[in-house]
Design goal:
Elements lengths: L1 E6 L7 H17 L4 E3 L17 H16 L5 E10 L2 E10 L2 E7 L24 E3 L2 E7 L1 H4 L1 H9 L4 E6 L7 H16 L2 E6 L1 E4 L2 E4 L3 E3 L5 E4 L6 E6 L17 H19 L5 E4 L4 H14 L4 E5 L7 H14 L2 E4 L3 H15 L6 H22 L2 E3 L4 H6 L20 H11 L8 H5 L19 H13 L4 H6 L4 H13 L1 H5 L27
Parallel strand pairs: 1-2, 2-3, 7-8, 8-9, 15-16, 15-18, 16-17
Antiparallel strand pairs: 1-14, 3-4, 4-5, 6-7, 9-12, 10-11, 12-13
Helix pairs in contact: 1-2, 4-5, 6-7, 6-12, 7-8, 7-12, 9-10, 14-16
């Protein structure tokens, strides 16, 4: 039997568009002479559809789309992800289509309800396995979480399945691709079955789906692998035919390359799927805005990216020149908007009220808010999406200004710690200078007062990020973090800043998830909260 895994990029709610993409994948699989064509989990609705599932007409449209897809399966079989409805409840389901109709339906049995998942809110679990005969080969469909626990695959193998097929919408985080493939290899080898895994690809709000669909032999060997972070069709014969060409075996990147690929896909899809074409970025001369600009150019192309430098009385000449050099290296439009006139006007307006008071963070935040106002004016006038440039370290401890540098429609680095920002920036320069060397080497600074550096307020970033990883991502207590070797007062200071900044994060833009625990769906803390344990 020849199987084709079509990892496609769907859009939540675009049932018509998704149906068209599925039909294109079926046609492509037929041209490859496949016997079975597989598309990802909930391919017709997009994943995750969330509260669209509360709309009865949305479910009806999805069921109508399934009938349309099934009618096209006259000379080929297909396994298609959709939302099934039975006795008033919904199921995350897979339809086995052939001979122009839906021949069988499998309902997902294990519903994830952790991290970014809340499928128990919407679906009821299936109760039974399914074994379908295809050309004499016993095929057992499964859906995403079903394969992560050993029981479902073992049951299928025990019932006589020779091939276990898993349709999936497995979101990316750092290192997950390798871990997931190791798990899939173990499932195949432990049960002595062929395993075909078809994953979704694309960006959906803060989530990125990395693709990397695979076909694995009963010996646990990967015989075919689709691309990372791109649509792809991978075709393999089960068992391999002597005359067949070797299946496609795409590389699986890791490290900075993997993270950068996720950022590009997440940003590009967010921009395009929400109807934007161009983005605008405030360029400070610092490493965060430089990395955001580099990602935007690789995701959208230089003609779609604008960089704006907004110098103040405290900006160094080097920061402006670094911004100019970055824009030149990237080939993007460069705009200079000095903020001194509006900043001075605000100071003059407030001077009667502030007379006799010491200059403090108030005046610093005014500068950030002037910049945010200018960026939003450009967005309103020209339709450009503003990209916020803050990183996870800053957002964790509130080292950011509401309605200032937090302004934006999307925050690509929201889940990227500062130390990793530096790593990614150096990776960008692996083949020559993209980000100016001086940007990489100078001490980080908001440049909102004379001779300011980030370390005036924060611990060194390597120390800060280690504490944040333990507290934010690991949910460790202050005492446990101190036991790791960190200074007591530093831990207390950092954790206090994290706790006090929840209200800021709640008002910030969406951003791409690249770690196992990002701010947003993964971590839902109450804003009004006095627990400090």
């Amino acid at each position: 039997m020849r199987i084709a895994l079509a990892q496609i990029d769907t859009v939540v709610g675009d049932i018509t568009g998704n149906t068209g993409r599925v039909l294109e994948a079926l046609a492509e699989g037929e041209r490859a002479r496949a016997d079975l064509i597989v598309v990802p989990e909930l391919a017709l609705t997009g994943y995750p559809p969330e509260d669209l599932l509360a709309k009865a007409h949305f479910i009806e449209d999805n069921l109508d789309a399934l009938e349309h897809v099934a009618a096209s399966c006259t000379s080929v079989a297909a396994l298609v992800g959709f939302v099934d409805r039975s006795d008033g409840v919904l199921h995350n389901a897979a339809a086995f289509c052939r001979e122009g109709k839906v021949a069988h339906v499998y309902r997902k049995r294990l519903l994830p309800n952790y991290g970014v998942f809340d499928e128990e809110r919407y679906f009821e679990p299936g109760q039974t396995a399914l074994l379908a005969d295809l050309g004499g080969l016993a095929v057992a469909p499964t859906i995403c979480e079903d394969i992560w626990m050993p029981g479902v695959a073992a049951e299928a193998a025990g019932a006589g399945a020779a091939l276990v097929v898993n349709i999936s919408a497995s979101p990316f985080h750092i290192g997950k691709g390798a871990d997931r493939e190791a798990m899939l290899r173990a499932r195949a080898a432990d049960n002595g079955v062929w395993l075909a895994y078809c994953n979704l690809v694309g960006g959906q709000d803060e989530l990125v789906f990395d693709g990397r669909s695979v076909v694995i032999s009963p010996a646990g060997e990967v015989v075919a692998r689709a691309a990372s972070f791109a649509e792809d069709l991978v075709v393999a014969d089960i068992p391999p035919a002597a005359e067949a060409p070797a299946p496609h075996l795409a590389a699986m990147p890791g490290g900075p390359e993997e993270i950068y690929g996720a950022l590009c896909l997440g940003l590009g899809d967010y921009v395009r799927k929400n109807g934007f074409s161009d983005v605008v970025i405030g360029l400070s001369g610092g490493i965060d805005s430089a990395l955001v600009a580099a990602v935007a150019v690789d995701a959208l192309g230089p003609d779609c990216v604008r960089g704006v430098t907004m110098p103040s009385r405290y900006s160094s000449a080097g920061s402006v020149e670094d911004s100019r050099a970055l824009a030149s290296n990237l080939g993007i439009d460069f705009i200079e908007l000095p903020i001194e006139p509006p900043f001075s006007a605000m100071l003059d307006t407030l001077e009667p009220l502030f007379e006799g008071l010491t200059t403090d963070v108030t005046e610093e935040n005014l500068q950030a808010r002037v910049r945010g106002t200018l960026l939003m004016a450009l967005s309103n006038k020209f339709g450009w999406l503003v990209l916020a440039t803050g990183n996870k370290s800053e957002l964790s401890v509130g080292y950011s200004t509401l309605y200032g540098d937090m302004v934006g429609g999307f925050a690509p680095l929201k889940d990227v710690f500062k130390t990793r920002v530096c790593e990614l920036a150096r990776w960008c320069n692996r083949n020559g200078e993209v980000i100016p060397r001086s940007t990489l080497e100078k001490p980080p600074s908001a440049e909102l007062r004379p001779d300011q550096t980030d370390q005036d307020t924060l611990p060194p970033y390597d120390v800060l990020d280690a504490i944040l990883a333990a507290y934010v991502e690991g949910d460790l207590s202050r005492e446990q973090i101190v036991e790791q070797g960190h200074d007591v007062s530093t831990v207390e200071h950092v954790c206090r800043m994290v706790d006090a900044s929840e209200y800021k994060r709640r008002q910030g833009p969406l951003g791409i998830r690249v770690t196992p625990k990002a701010f947003g769906k993964d971590r839902r803390m109450p804003v009004t909260n006095r627990y400090r344990g």
